[in-house]
Input
Amino acid sequence: MNDAEKTISPKVIASAVTSILLVAVIAAIGAITPDLFSGLGVWAPVVYAAVVSVGATLAGFIKRDSLRK
Output
């Protein structure tokens, strides 16, 4: 096994950290101003999940991984 197989990819770490931060931000905004997302109605959970998944995907896409080319 080489080093690339033993280490966690920076892309995975960037996606995980971004997901955690976005969940915290959305939860804080929802707790402070609950009426902000009331216009979304039943679609609010879908929008929350979409924001986190798109952010994580973009973070993983943007991050470079020098061990895996």
User: Anything to note?
Assistant: The CA atoms of residues 40 and 47 lie 8 Å apart.
